[in-house]
Amino acid sequence: MLGHNKLCAVVAASTASSLYRQLRQALRQTHTIEFRLDWLANDREIERFFGKLRAPQTDVTFIATLRRREAGGRYRGTIAKQLFYLAQAIRAGSRWYDLEIETVRQCPPELIEALLGEGRELRSAHFFHSMPQDLRRIARELRRGDPDRIKIAVQCDSLAKAWRLELLAREQRSLVAIPMGDVALPARVLALRARGGFAYAPVENATAPGQTSLQEMRSLYRVDHLDSRTRVYGVIGDPIAHSLSPAMQNAGFQARRMNAVYLPFRVKELKDFIDSIPEFGIRGFSVTLPHKQSILDYLDGCDRLAAKIGAVNTVVVRGARGLYGYNTDYVGVLRTLASRMPLSKSRVLIMGTGGAARAVAFALAQAGSAVCVSARRWKQATGLAKAVNGEAIARPRLRHEFFDAIVNATPVGMFPAVGGSPLEARELNCRLVFDTIYRPRVTRLLRLAARRGVATVSGVEMFIAQGTAQWEIWTGERAPADAMRRAVLAALRRDSARGRTKGVR
After folding, report:
1. Is the pTM for the entire model greater than 0.85?
2. How many domains does the chain have?
3. What are 292-326's pLDDT values in tens digits?
4. Whether residues 76 and 203 fall in one domain
């Protein structure tokens, strides 16, 4: 291993004082730290940082990196200056240094040995745009000169590519494999289940595509506790970065002290994810936009309610590949609205025709509501209305209609595009507006409704209700609903605080 910890904190800043502050912060969370000297503004700041740096404790491992622009870094200096500063880092107590293949190709090995021989070399190759065809050839080239470890970092736009890189790392024990990009986030986390697993996590500034912060890696995904017995769950969607499902579900696992982790999978192509289920050992997963209906094509079966709705938001993996679907959005809708209004004989307008809209429509129809549907696509609106014995209403008519409730089941207004609303204020002729979006907690639609004196309901309650139902389906145990609720509300409060800091309304 490169250090005493599988998780390496990355410190990167433009000034020596900021870099040193991050370093001290990182030492409170891990004893393996990479400092990115190339992020410092100039050579003077590099020298200032060395003036502050002290030899680490015996159980602390420093990795010094001064990556040149040619290799995807920020350093504009010469190779001679690069080697000079890496040698200085070794003298200051850095046990390891990272030297990219671009420098090695232009530098005599005798010079590297003479200047850096007292340190341990991590020789690296980075591919920020695509995966090279022959990874083994890259690995062979990296090993010339016998460095202590080698590293290959590759931008992965699919889970299949991330798994290919993981297989190479398992085959070649001296290789550190780093899949880059948001699609590869689960692969980076799950690599830490292995005894020789290794991952980078920034304290503040991400230095590679898709990096997850040190705080999230340790507190949200609890990577310090991952091992070969860890059960894996997740949520699939595109986009997925906005999802608070990891905060909620992982809080449930932590409350019950379960050896399990829940991860966000950005899934562009469903087949890519489905094929990766056995490789990553996935036991179950949530489904969100845009896959709630298309996932049906990959299931071996689903419960009668989900089949009737025609949308699935929860999947259990049975055996190696057997997939069985459920719909807990239905439960979330009923628990949320039934406590606020009588559903029987109420007239309710649903905006949208996707998976969430279908669950809302069937839930309300089952409860005795008169369901109306409006959407941009008239054919889909009439189809959903017919399925629940309801009525399709064209958008121009909405100003002249009245409803007991209006439910937004579209993604319009969802983080990060928080300025949108599926309806205008003059179209909100109703007693109650329910927005199934939960992030932000108060959407522009809800603010418009409140200004008209209309009662509002956030999607948070539905989100928590459907999520606790998922947790119970996967685990067979009663969900720690209070702990899961606290985690969601805490995350939303942080959202709100960040919004105030940035002037977001």
Report:
1. yes
2. 3
3. 999 999 999 999 999 999 999 999 999 867 999 99
4. yes
Assign residue 175 the CATH number of its domain.
Answer: 3.20.20.70
Strand partners, 35: 11, 64
Separation CA 446–CA 296 (nearest Å): 32
Catalytic residue ranges:
292
Among candidate residues 72, 69, 136, 142, the one with its CA nearest the CA of residue 105: 142
Residue entry with tokens 């049906």 = 296
Q: Which residues contact residue 205 at a Cβ distance below 8 angstroms, ignoring those fewer than 6 apart? A: 12, 13, 39
As a whole number of angstroms, the distance between CA 152 and CA 140 comes to 11
- Two structure tokens written together for 412: 């319009």
Give the CATH number for residue 493. Answer: 3.40.50.10860
The reply to whether 189 and 135 lie within a common domain is: yes
In a domain, 219, yes or no: yes
Q: How far is the CA of 1 from the CAs of 7, 171, 322, 343, 386, in angstroms?
A: 11, 15, 37, 60, 61
Question: What's the chain's average pLDDT?
Answer: 94
499 pLDDT tier (thresholds 50, 70, 90): low
What are the tokens at 76? 């504009």
For residue range 93-144, what is the model confidence (pLDDT) as tens digits? 999 999 999 999 999 999 999 999 999 999 999 999 999 999 999 999 999 9
Percent of the chain with pLDDT over 70: 98
**189 with 73, same domain?**
yes
Distance (Å, whole) CA 28 – CA 210: 24
- By C-alpha distance, which of 319, 310, 448, 445 is closest to 388? 310
The answer on 477 and 450 residing in a single domain is no
393 and 377, same structural domain? yes
Partnered with residue 177 across adjacent β-strands are 152
Range of the domain at 20: 7-228
Same domain, 150 and 264: no
Report CA-CA distances (Å) from 310 to 43, 296, 326, 329, 406: 61, 8, 10, 12, 22
The answer as to whether 465 is a domain residue is no
Per-residue pLDDT of 170-205, as tens digits, reads 899 889 999 999 999 999 999 999 888 899 999 999
Q: Kindly state the average pLDDT of the residues 345-370.
A: 96
| 1 found inside a domain | no
- Decide if 213 contacts 254 (C-beta within 8 A): no
21 and 128: one domain?
yes
In a domain, 463, yes or no: no
